[in-house]
Amino acid sequence: MSQDDINLTDPAFFGSGDPHAIWRRLRSEDPVHWTEGRLAKKFWSVTRHADAKFVLMNDNRIFSVQHAGANLPMGPEFEDPEASLFTQLAQSAQQLATMDGQPHNALRRYFSTRFTSQSVNGLEALVRNVSDEILADILPRGTCDFTTEYAGRLPTAVIAAIMGVPRERWDDFYLWNNMMAAPEDPEFAMGTPVETSTFGVSNIMRSVVELAEERRGAARDDLLTALVQAEIDGQPLTETQIGFNGLMFFAAGHETTRSSMSVGLLELLKDPAQIEWLRANRHDPAALRGAIDEFVRFSAPLTHTLRTVTEDVEVGGQMMRKGDWAVIWFHAANRDPAAFSDPETFDVRRTPNPHLGFAIGKHFCLGAHLARLDMAVMLDAILGSMDQIELAGPVEWASSNLFWGIKHMPIRFRAGSQITSSQAAA
Ligand code: HEM
Asked: Which helix (H) or strand (E) holds 12?
């Protein structure tokens, strides 16, 4: 068993180590790599862009997400579905992200109307208001933890508002979500990692179900109402399906956006010329959109997704057998020199940018338009209201091999003349 393999299956390594070095090695020496890490189940690590795309484009044909869920167990103790509630749920095909075939198509069609670019454009005023409110608190101080106070707080508030989670519950949801996503992280630990994860998962799900139940017979224009009204093959969702899909929306709706935004700003701070270019072009939506895609390519905050092979298939010269797991490492694919020129360079003007940060195919990120809107508003606001931004302390990375990224990033800045994002955009 190699140290690289152990590291890829060790969330703590992602908090302090350098997974990029492993991905560089694998891409060039063993791009579809049999990985014998800390887990009892061994798996294929797919690290090249073309192979990752092949797997994702063959969902439901050669690969399945519902056989074993979409993620590696976070450690050996998570491999037993009897012990880990998260594993049990993730392997039970009760959530959009872990369903194949017709049930997935039906549920995706149902939810997708709320996440089209047109529907999401209608949320811009909400997102700008949230941003203004947060900045009114942060800007006068001239310093903040960028990740928790802005990059994490904005998407949390936005997805919570879309779902209909009352404001006084937002902080609880945020904490429980961290417990689920990074249960080995000492900052969130409450007992063993499995206990921490189960505490987070069960609390979010119970609260989602309670809030959704209030909507029965008293419909509102929110996602929790949509959850109680949803049907698969004419059947309403079960309590578990309501809870687990609610948890998915909450987690997917903020965790990844927070990391992409933080990594994006960190990279910009290393190259002030790119900040100046963006400042000069910030009223050009194409410039902001290009920058945001580079944020997502470079950060790839969902580190991996998992598929189970349903028939023997050759991928990248390796024979995968029915029942094997194929793990796509988005980070590795997004920095594949065969798909990107100068892939290790962060470049907001990169074009083309065929990154897989939002995946591709049947499970392409449902919230991609929303993520782009959240990030465009934040980027615009930063460019319009903060000058001379610099790090004010060490950057801390999350101990998670699922939702990887920055956990804390203290910055200081000089508040510019345009104080709010809506003024900045006017
Ligand atoms: C930068 C931000 C984001 C990134 C990088 C990202 C990334 C991804 C990726 C890679 C997948 C595919 C997973 C797979 O193939 O197994 C995915 C799926 C999904 N994402 Fe996102 N996401 C982001 C933001 C959001 C937001 C804001 C939402 C809000 C609702 C969201 C909701 C979803 C949902 C519901 C799915 C499952 C879709 C399906 O299975 O059909 N995501 N996301």
From this structure: helix 11-16
